[in-house]
């Protein structure tokens, strides 16, 4: 407890060393905090007998996300951050968390926080083909693809005529002249008036909380929902993300997160909460079972 580790992989390494020296049962107690994993934590045959447990009464979170720092002004209240050094496999992520809360991907119409289930939708103007599951028309003025630099990057959410299925998929095609949008896939037949929205378009980033990433410049754009209330615009302030440091091994195998705030001045604008991209879509912990050759 006097010299806890800062990371799970380091604690796992020490546990394996203890097992190699004859300890059959090793217990690692994880102190409260958020632990960011650069890759899945794999429990393999050499980890047999290892127990990972959270400290009693303390909240423990294992996160495969990437913390975003180094924010700078872009346009108005929208900030930008460089993603090129975050070791992301690609920029095809579709979730962003600020202060632990999921933020809306830049979309039209905007997300309605007062009516999250029933608001924030458009209604289609009719189906483009009989018995179609993917193609419908939109009303004049609802969408403005002529101002989108990359309409091929758009995603859409829509409901079918029976409201059985919620489809969330890329936009396959968009015919601006005839105001027809086609989804990449569909399950049930559509009808006039079904709700939908379109997202993933940088030009539609126009409301607090919205974000969008540009894969060409590897830049993340984000309008913090509380920037106007809790930020110091125009002043250089330290990032708010927790910083972890490696520590020496301890005999008890305890683990804790270092909650000290970073002291380096890295951003021109302060975010009141942490911004995290959930980069690892696979399970954080993989259990590899030893093959039974008997």
Tell me the span between the first and last alpha carbons: 42 Å
- Arithmetic mean pLDDT: 81
Largest sheet: 8 strands, antiparallel
Name the helix and strand elements from N-terminus to C-terminus, one letter apiece: HEEEEEEEEEEEEEEEEEEEEHEEEE
Radius of gyration: 24 Å
Total helical segments: 2
- What portion of the residues fall into strands of 2 or more residues? 25-35%
Indicate the percent of residues in helices.
Answer: under 10%
Structural category = mainly beta
**How many strands in all?**
24
Any low-confidence stretches, pLDDT <50, length ≥5? 229-270, 280-294
Tell me what you see in this structure.
By secondary structure, the chain is mostly beta strands. 6% of the residues lie in helices and 30% in strands. The chain contains two helices and 24 strands. It has helices at residues 8-20, 227-230; strands spanning 26-30, 33-36, 41-43, 50-54, 60-63, 66-67, 72-75, 78-82, 97-98, 101-102, 107-108, 122-123, 126-127, 135-137, 155-159, 166-175, 180-183, 195-199, 211-214, 219-222, 237-238, 265-267, 275-277, 285-287. Strands 11, 12, 13, 14, 15, 16, 17 and 18 form an eight-stranded antiparallel beta sheet that branches. A four-stranded antiparallel beta sheet has the order 6-23-9-10, with no helix packed on it. A hairpin with a 6-residue loop joins strand 15 and strand 16 (166-175). It starts with 7 loop residues before the first helix and ends in a 7-residue tail after the last strand. The model is unreliable at 229-270 and 280-294 (pLDDT under 50).
